[in-house]
User: Fold these one by one.
Assistant:
Number 1:
Amino acid sequence: MYSAQEEFWDPLTRRHAQKMRRSLETERIRSLRGDGQNLVTEDVTVVEGDVATISCRVKNSDDSVIQLLNPNRQTIYFRDFRPLKDSRFQLVNFSNSELRVSLTNVSVSDEGRYFCQLYTDPPQEIYTTITVLVPPRNLVIDIQKEIAVEGEEIELNCTAMASRPATTIRWFKGNKELTGKSEVEQWSDMFTVTSQLVLKVGREDDGVPVVCLVDHPAVKDLQTQRYLEVMYKPQVRVSQNYPVQGLTREGEPLELTCAAFGKPQPTDMRWLRVDDEMPQHVVVSGSNLLISNLNKTDNGTYRCEASNAVGKSHADYMLFVYDPPTTIPPPTTTTTTTTTIPTTITDTTATTEPAVHGFTQLPNSAEELDYGDLSGTPVPLRASTEALPTVHTNSRAGEEGAIRSVDHAVVGGVVAVVVFAMLCLLIILGRYFARHKGTYFTHEAKGADDAADADTAIINAEGGQNNSEEKKEYFI
């Protein structure tokens, strides 16, 4: 019977209160008996169907009689004699200091207090409590929808029936523990626990097990599971088969492949060009797209679409066609080194430039031109030239650098030749004009200023006709 207050308690709280009351009563009785108590025993916890062993022991035996009684105060054993006609009770050990009895095939009805009595003066009595554990009879997961669609919420229920005490249910999705909501129902001495789990599923949950695990002292590793089945729309991916991780250049081919995965498997797959029509020279074969000869008009975004019963998805590939590579033969490079200013001359024919204005070779610097002989004497080279090994590179950057070096060397050489020729011309013209500039002095008209007429002037000229042969010219 329950007290008035216990009538409003839930089954778990009521049962806990009863155990606490029995425990306090046991402690009170044992404390009244004091430390001189000769009779000892222990409480027994057993799983339904197993064997429970009850032991009544005497510390200081004086050959007094020991007997065991059931919760109804019926004698089970008196010394080694069994008055109770229940074959499940068997004598394990009997002596002056111990009476040990086993109870096979324990059921819930066997739960209660069993009394050990010692016939002394005064008689001694102590009791032991048998607690029977009942594991869940059945563990079932009930799922609201056998097949769910990505993004939906589904409800799962796990029920553990007819257990004692009430079980604790835990949920796991894969290796991750989830939290459910549990309800406890009591029928007689048994408890039924139902736990509810609400779960929002995605494509990553397809094929993942949901586990319902029971925590109960009567059983270990009791669990059941259900595998989720989730439908989801396709997942599309576009990959470039050719060129493999290379630039898409004009004149070269392009091959794309579209892969789609979904549940159910996509049944419709197609290629299209975003914001424009598909070029006529594009070949589409199933999931492949091929352009045999790329050109600038092919630039754009190409889309692969796939669909199934759940929905439609797509993936885009942005195409940009680059210019074709230009091929230039690598030049031969010859390097000339002087003792004054290093000069590099590049010549693809490996020949020597002809001499200009009598020079066997062009001067290496303006300094030689300024301090050279301006009389027209040829200016010799200050140092001999040596040919260095020719270096070839295959990379595009090397070719472009070599081309720029050749251009700069040629332009510099031409400018140097033109400037040198102009300077030589100016020097020659200057010396020519300086040589023909001066004053001429003669004696033919000497004395002519004092003559009255031409004849007199001729006669009065110094030397006259006789001196005509002595006339001379002097060039200064």
Number 2:
Amino acid sequence: MQYHPMIGGSSSQPDTSKTTKLERYNSYIRRLNSTKLLQASSKLLFRVTLLVALVLIFFFTLNYPPLSGDNHHIHATNNFLSSAFYGNGATWEKQVRHSSTPRRPNGFSVLVTGAVGFVGSHCSLALKKRGDGVLGIDNFNSYYDPSLKRARQKLLKKHEIFTVEGDINDTELLTKLFDIVPFSHILHLAAQAGVRYAMQNPLSYVNSNVAGFVNLLEVAKSADPQPAIVWASSSSVYGLNSEVPFSETDRTDQPASLYAATKKAGEEIAHTYNHIYGLSLTGLRFFTVYGPWGRPDMAYFFFTKDILQSKSINVYVTQEDKEVARDFTYIDDIVKGCVGALDTAEKSTGSGGKKRGAAQLRVYNLGNTSPVTVGKLVRILESLLSAKAKKHVIKMPRNGDVPFTHANVSLAYRDFGYKPTTDLATGLRKFVKWYVSYYGIESRVKKEIDASTNEEA
């Protein structure tokens, strides 16, 4: 018997299409709501994280100095932080004012750029000692060991000299300093130093020695009153000049290195700002400065280190096998020259960026007038260190170094009594005594130095 289903009977399958569509719609709504909730949570989390990050940046900027280095991104970040946060505190402004206030009648208020550098630290201490107000600024770059700069900073702080950590390319920071203090003088010593390093990082020289100088002059020209400016040029501007001794009237249009070219550019820039804006500007051409707290990239410094560590040293000779000689100038003599230049600097004649009359424009050699061969330098160090140098005599590479320097300082003597008094043997003895003390070298060296000092006394 066959089974025949009844048409329209209860045994047919139920219609579930409406139920399925409803479940799909509810699932879609649940997913949509979850997505919206997740997006809202993400936005809230992002905003909270950003707020916390800003608070932390603000806290650490106020309590810790910004890190420095050669990296341009780091410098840009530091400039932003210094402009946005670093100079906004009442305590910071109080330190700036206190450090800049002179303690003697008619004393100067001097902004010293490159204040924790070799020459900058010595000049800052000398000015403070005689009662001038001194404010330092330095970016603590890592061209050489920053710990030495930190040690100099501590020395300055001990004598109540405050150092602002910032870059001379930071216009906002410089402007703020001039808003706080009516500086009477600027001693501009900040620069990218060294001849050979220019072959590795040329842009650092342009950034510091050219752009930085222009930025400083731009701020100074707009100040009211305009400060008188004394700044560091270099003996390297004489370049391939063969006339000796080097005089300020000699040619300086044949630089042998990028460093020299940037310093020569600085002299031309100084002329421009003097002519257009009435800024009083004095350039000082330093000749191979040495002494305690010196720069580790200088030959006398790393010769001392290598001789003590029994390492070989490279002693250069010219392509014609002649000895290389330098007009080594002791730091105390250089400081006297810088202070003399400041004391005789006339006031700028401009106001608010407008020239009111002719202004002073000068350039001077600051040297020792007695060139000494590098070979003799090594022999003096050998005697002071009681150690024989392992010399490796090689030809001078074509990296921009010149074979001979010799300063004629008669112009500086005439105008502010500059007269160097320290010979190389005496100056190196003082340097070595500082070196073994600073680096904690207890050995025959200290005994030899103390003995020679007592004999002189």
Number 3:
Amino acid sequence: MELGGGGRGAGDRVRRQLQAVGRVAAYLGGGFILLSAASSVAVRSLRALSDANQRKFAMPCGACEGKGSYACRLCKGSATIEWSPMYDPVFVNPCLCPTCDGTRVQRCLNCLGKGYA
């Protein structure tokens, strides 16, 4: 009788069981990724179809006249604002407008930049 023969057989059995579990996990993971990708494509296509249908029949936005953006209301199109950290300022610093980040236009908040309501 060999003493080491039984241990090797048990190790092979454990290795095969781990390989089987690994294969099942790979199949389930791959299926989940495939299902996630397919549902993402379906949702995006339905959203694009709905958006195109709305664009065809919707009225233009009254706030931006269908442009989707308008001149920044905080800086009034100058890209900077006058700001000082003190209540009674000695001097006032010109700073970049936090609303438009210096682009001088902001997205319409009524239509969220789509151009139609």
